[in-house]
Amino acid sequence: QVQLVESGGGLVQPGGSLRLSCTASGFTSKLYFIKWYRQAPGKERELVSEISPTGGQTVYVDSVKGRFTISRDSAKNTVYLSMISLKPEDTAVYYCNAPFYNIWGQGTQVTVSS
User: Fold this and answer.
1) Which of 13, 66, 88, 107 could pair with 93 in a Cys bridge, judged by C-beta atoms 3.0 to 4.6 Å apart?
2) CA–CA separation, 85 vs 68, rounded Å?
3) pLDDT (tens digit, 9 = 90+) per residue, 18-39?
4) Under DSSP, is residue 30 helix (H, G, I), strand (E, B) or coil?
5) Phi then psi dihedrals of residue 27, to 5 deg
6) What is the pLDDT of residues 59-76, one digit of tens each?
7) 91: which strand partners?
8) DSSP state letters, 48-104
């Protein structure tokens, strides 16, 4: 059974940092594109970042460029989203996605508030 499990969310003050994890099981995630999305209350789900199978190509939405970094740890079959300088507008449920298998994780809540 292929699945993704996210972790690492939480409550953080503005300017703080978090690292989200997306751990795959049932398949080797380094062979596929992996994407991070987020959905804020009352808003549509938006693509935040993606990483290519080799890890050599990454994409970021403009609003997170310079603050978020996507990366892989192939040994742990995990993709990370490292977030710094967090802003209240980053508050959302964050999901990882493997388009090839059309599967999503359960999501992890990130709340940026003082």
Assistant:
1) 107
2) 9
3) 999 999 999 999 989 999 999 9
4) helix
5) -160, 165
6) 999 999 999 999 999 999
7) none
8) EEEE-TTS--EEE-GGGTTTEEEEEEGGGTEEEEEE-S--GGG-EEEEEEETTTTEE
The Cβ-side half-sphere exposure at 114, using a 13 Å CA radius, reads 3
Upper half-sphere CA count for residue 59 (Cβ side, 13 Å): 13
Kind plus residue range of the DSSP H or E element containing 6: strand 3-7
Joined together, the tokens standing for residue 110 give 């990130």
C-alpha span between 28 and 19 (Å, rounded): 21
d(C-alpha 6, C-alpha 107), whole Å: 6
What type of residue sits at position 94? Y
